[in-house]
Amino acid sequence: MCNVAVIEFFIEYAEPEEFKGRRVLEVGSRYENGSVRPLVEKFFHPREYIGIDIVPGKFVDIVLPAEKLFEYFGPESFDVVIATEVLEHVKNWRLVINNMKTVLKPGGYIYITTRSRYFPYHGFPHDYWRYEISDMKLIFSDFEILCLKRDYMEPGVFLKARKPKDWSPAYLDNIALYSVLLGRRTKKIVDIREAPLSRRLMFKFLDSRVSYLLPGALTRLLKKRFA
User: Fold this and answer.
1) Which of 56, 80, 89, 127 has minimal Cβ neighbours within 10 Å of its Cβ?
2) Which of 14, 6, 47, 15 is nearest to 153 (CA)?
3) Could you give the count of Cα atoms lying within 13 Å of 139 in the half-sphere of its Cβ?
């Protein structure tokens, strides 16, 4: 999923020299209501642009879970890593973020957009986490943060950061993120089975086709209630 603010973020902060003739990886690249890929390929001219996702689709070059990035590509394989609207959907966020950091070359750039608390539940196919500015500062304390801002359209955060030449991974185990499943912050990796019964039933309903039979206003109210 990609809103107008995500595209504007790339237009404002991405520099052609970061991409031109370089190797780019997009994590969670399947087309959902927009993509930054055409912008990058048409105007920034990377040498190679590889999109990975857990299911096939438009802009997916390799079907691969983000948890397998390091295993598949190896260390320091890309000059730029992009992840738009995907980190809220990965259960093991620490592993995925460390993988993205590891496959990035020293001096390379990472671009991330993701959702914050009060953004509605949206299972594609799962929805686990919400990230705030303070969380991203801690998670990327081992990178040079070049831009960190809120999405002005909807609850979310945008990050651009550069991997230092002498990179040493930050310790992430003590970071507690807001869990959509639990309705509170937690350091644990959580599963839908750990959520209270009322939340489990509501998530199951919101993920079902039956929910689309409700009036739009009521569906939006339910999603907001379980943000």
Assistant:
1) 56
2) 6
3) 26
Residue 123 predicted with pLDDT over 50 = yes
Structure tokens at 65: 């879970």
d(CA 102, CA 84): 18
The overall pTM is greater than 0.70? yes
Tokens in use for 24? 């780019």
Question: Per-residue DSSP letters for 96-133?
Answer: HHHHHHHHEEEEEEEEEEEE-TTSPP--SS---EE--H
Q: Which position has the token pair 């890929």?
A: 37
Nearest to 225 by CA among 205, 152, 4, 33: 205
Confidence of residue 131 (pLDDT cuts 50, 70, 90): very high
User: Is it true that the peptide bond before 155 is cis, omega within 30 degrees of 0?
Assistant: no
Count Cβ atoms below 10 Å from residue 106 Cβ, excluding itself.
11
